[in-house]
Amino acid sequence: MADPIEPSTSSSDPNSIPIPTAILHPRREPFEHGLLTIQKLIFNDPVQALTPLKQKFASPSTERVDSAALAELLQISFDHSRLVLETLASVLHSEPDPLVTALPDDVDSIGADLRDLILFLYIQSYKRLLPRSHKDSAAVADVWPSMSAFDGYLSALSPLQLVRSNSRRFMPSQADEEVHQLSYLQKHLANILSLLSEHVEGESEESLVLTMEGFEHLGFLIQFGDKGSEVVPLSQAAPFFANSDPDMPAAPVPVSQVHDWLLQTIASSLESITEKVSAKENGSPSGSDQDVAMADATPSSAKASLSARSPCFVEGVSKSSYVKQASDLNSSSVKVINCHDSTIYILAPLRYAIIYGCSDATIVLGAVGKAVRVEHCERVHVIIAAKRVCIANCRECVFFLGVNQRPLFVGDNHKLQVAPYNTYYSQLEEHLTEVGIVSTINRWDEALSISVIDPHDSLSHPAGVSDAQPESATCLDPDQFTNFLIPNWFENESTGSTKDNPFPLPDAYMTSQQRNQKNLSEIKQMLREAPLEENRKRELSSALHVYFKDWLYASGNIRQLYCLQGD
Questions:
Q1: Is 315 within 8 Å of 296 (Cβ atoms)?
Q2: Could you point out which of 70, 140, 259, 399 has its C-alpha 20 to 30 Å from the C-alpha of 329?
Q3: Any transmembrane segments, and where (predicted)?
Q4: How far apart are CA 398 and CA 110, in angstroms?
């Protein structure tokens, strides 16, 4: 159990609202994995747009909104309506919610809790923090000299630029993003509380109240708990609900009181985070950020930063291999950033994963139960077993997918291919079960492409680009499909029972695989039985080695041999 949050009060103002000593943090998940590029969900006035939704469904008998009702009310397609529910389920803070535990066929009918849905739709107006500008713009331009009209803004973070610009020093840090997200919530807090509130008869200024249950739904956006500690329920941190009798429903609280307390709490947290950032920039050892920057992209410098609340960062791996098992991780979230010419293995059960700014690499993620986002990658092979995956602004990549939901493609994608999942490791099935992935359901070839424009970025959009149709992915030719073998480095420690790929292969890919295996067996037999003299056998062997080496480099599979190198 986490220690109780002790409120502090200002000695100079005896009437001040108690402020908890623990820092209030925004939940990253809705902002990192919950933003959709559906233009009809971007409201100029969210309160005006969402009030009809609240009025229609705010009754005990209709507190959940299903796909059909959502599509009708927002005037969006059924596919987009289901996408909203699936995305919301992947970022919800309440694990027991029926939408989180729903079977794939039941998502549409179970629907979303009205208050969670309102908060989810409200933050679709959020604008992401821009990367810090590079001091030497000429050096960056030199790396990416031929920019198209799209590249000028959508590919402003090309992986090649990231390498040249030492990405982590010029991308927003975790602290910068937290400040940006808290500032957004601070600005929109009054609107958000009004949408969660209930109307009661009485004095006009006290006519809007918030129940404890409604207040707890703010846990979708914010949470208390310092790094390394458990998350504290919001009602335990709030002075107006903290001492409520668990056997008696707590009395509703005026929205104005909740608003004032949260504003003070956010202001206090912003001040604390800003002080830590300033201390770090000034070189003070006490100013610890949650990031570990890895400026030198070399095997010796590549490492992960871990904490219970923060994601694990895998960063700067270059021309090497990187392997992590479940026992190596203290976090259920991983970010793979700025890795090049390498093979990355994260063989663990995870909740969330982000792959960003990687090139010429092979990346294997174990089992991701919530969501994966792959962004700004080039010539990368990604092997993923996940509930859902979103792919944005990538080029010439191949995705080998075992996914329970339709893969989502957004932004400026070019020459992408998808294929069925193609590997396994000894604990894979155990990890799939742990995070709730069903291996008998694989929707790898049902891509959903929406919007070249990302309305959540803060960049200017050239005229006409919004009319461009997004480029979807094509299916990998079955004759080009091969299994990916994960080396068993930990054979003596392995306790898993998985002996083969748990995701069934489609007939075309299975037939091709069987044909290739048969051809290989026949060639081996012919070579063994060939009546060649010893010198001719040596010549044949030498020629095979040359062709094999050429194939390794041409196919990119040379990266797999990095695993055999000593670090």
A1: no
A2: 399
A3: none
A4: 34
